[in-house]
Design brief:
Strand content: under 5%
Shape: elongated
Distance between the termini: 65 Å
Largest sheet: none
Structural class: mainly alpha
Number of helices: 3
Radius of gyration: 19 Å
Helix content: over 70%
């Protein structure tokens, strides 16, 4: 494909299209993370240890997947996982 008359290169247009796709994918992953966090916190508020542990495992999985795909930083994922673990550990006592 030749250079466009507007002076914008086709590679720039392709990168813009790729950025849109990535943004959409990343926002859906972040949404899943936020939902998982809310579910863990709700289970902790209700005092249900069994459900909290199940939701904690789901949240860990979501954080790990996001860190693997570089949607979030690996250390940010680690910090959040530690925070959630601490919440559930308090509930166990």
């Amino acid at each position: 494909m030749a250079k466009l008359k507007t002076g914008r290169h086709t590679s720039a247009l392709k990168e813009a299209r790729k950025a849109e796709k990535r943004t959409e994918r990343n926002s859906s992953i972040r949404s899943k993370i936020k939902t998982a966090i809310k579910r863990v916190e709700e289970a902790v508020k209700k005092g249900d240890v069994k459900v909290a542990l199940e939701q904690l495992a789901t949240a860990f999985s979501e954080w790990d997947k996001a860190a693997k795909k570089n949607v979030v930083h690996s250390k940010a994922a680690s910090n959040q996982k530690a925070r959630l673990s601490k919440l559930v550990a308090k509930l166990k006592k």
